[in-house]
Amino acid sequence: MSAARPLTTLRTIAVIAALPLLLTACSYGSKSTDDGKQTAVAAGAKKLSADEVKIGYFPNLTHATALAGVQEGLFQKELGGTTLKTSTFNAGPSEIEALNAGSIDIGWIGPSPAINGYTKSNGKNLRIIGGSASGGVKLVVNPKKIKSLADVKGKKIATPQLGNTQDVAFLNWIADQGWKVDAESGKGDVSVVRTDNKITPDAYKAGSIDGAWVPDPTASKLVAEGGKVLLDESTLWPDKKFVITNIIVSQKFLKEHPDVVEAVLRGSVKTNAWINANPDKAKASANAALEKLSGKALPAAVIDPAWKSITFLDDPLASTLNTEAQHAVKAGLLDKPDLKGIYDLTLLNKVLKAQGKNEIDDAGLGAE
After folding, report:
1. For 362, phi and psi rounded to 5 degrees?
2. Contacts of residue 111, Cβ cutoff 8 Å, sequence gap at least 6
3. What is the value of pTM for the model shown?
4. Using CB atoms within 10 A as the burial measure, which of 11, 150, 176, 339 is most buried?
5. What is the 3-state secondary structure (H, E, C) of 84-127?
6. What is the pLDDT of residues 26-35, one digit of tens each?
7. How many whole angstroms separate alpha carbon 268 and alpha carbon 108?
């Protein structure tokens, strides 16, 4: 297996580490919060093979499966007497570190940190065991400065972090236009300005950026400030679907406690079904969870359009993860990775089959 170069340089990590984020997606910042929250276990409930399972996720709408599943008790119901402990993160790298250290067993995370974590460990630390969300990423611009896609050339466009999922997508889109940008510096035919999602709306209002390729709810916050959606990234993908959030597990925990992992996956599948059947209730539940975690709920003008742009699903969309890795290689941010074995969808397909649903393909990237 070829060694992978981290999607963010050490220099960038040092800068970004000082910028903790709220309500972000994928691999921004470096702050994590071990909230130590444990859900109540019903009296007399049967314990599985582990006393507890520690899960991690972001205070972000693209992690609404975890937010709502915990909030509504859907995971704990499947776990019975095994206690669910939760931790929240604002950065993919810190969640991977927590997984490697055993601080969490299972996590919701974006594709770039999952790829990076897997390749840096030579395929020994994690497996992707399910999907969670697709979409929710847009190019939002100042309509006074940018009226067409061609007008993006020569402008200052923000992405959340060098080498994160949205940054790679934007660099790939730029290359497809025939424009040149140095991936590391962000300088070229377009100025790619790596900006903490928490301050992107203020940067937009101040005029220091002309737009941003960002996930929701940041994209919807920019629209609320007068921005215009120039491009929805989903339109660039087959069937308008691409992975934005995966479920990962420690290989050690998967081997030792497959029954617990299966229970969490049942909770995830049932939560996604509940979200899709009850979108308004699910949106309110996720927002209530966000308010508990961040101290502030999202206003309707932001959460309503953001929620509509995200699709919650069980399929990890393996082929799109492989494509995203190829985009990072093309941009010069990643050495060609060997992703064989990054997926193990055995338990997910067992859960889906038991519910009469179709099994999901791993695009040839499954474990032997």
Report:
1. -100, 15
2. 26, 165, 243, 244, 246, 320, 321, 324, 325
3. 0.85
4. 339
5. EEEEEECCHHHHHHHHHHCCCCEEEECHHHHHHHHHHCCCCCEE
6. 433 334 444 5
7. 11
